[in-house]
Amino acid sequence: HIDNLKEHFNGKTVNIVGKGPSLDYLSADDFPSPDDPIIGLNEAALELAKLDLPNPIFGLQQDARLKGTCKPEGVPIFVSVKAANFYADKQDAYVFNARRYKLSLNALSVTAAIKITQSLGARDYRLVCFDSCVNQKMGYAKAIPYPVTFGGSPQRFRSHRAKIQKHTRGYKLE
Predict the structure, then answer these.
(1) pLDDT digits over 2-36, tens only?
(2) Exposed (0-12), middle (13-18) or buried (19+): which is 87, by Cβ within 10 Å?
């Protein structure tokens, strides 16, 4: 059950890794504290698993259209109820219902990660590889195996910063 993961998040800064172009250059240097948990969104979790970091690492998949493609070996993953059947064979898959966290079933993966970890006692947030929120680059990293238009117009990223800020109000956000 997700609540059993509280020890990894309670009082910690949660690093959330997106799929922006800077994901192709991700390194251990991007994570200053080895004690803080890291959540890789969708395929970003696969890239995190390659870095052999000392941090607690998790994946998160909200979008069922990705099927079971975001399954990092040896990395626990939060999976939406919509995608849960693709992870039935994964022992460390933690199924979540976005509505439990007062989100729509089509909520952004990042807002699902934020709301889940807030319920587990997260102290604050560092977002990594969210290029569109920082420098307006609307693409995906080369490591992402589908075009940025897969989820609609890349212009959709323009609204993400405001949504992230809304859900982290009262928390430090870097």
Answers:
(1) 999 999 999 999 999 999 999 999 999 999 999 99
(2) buried
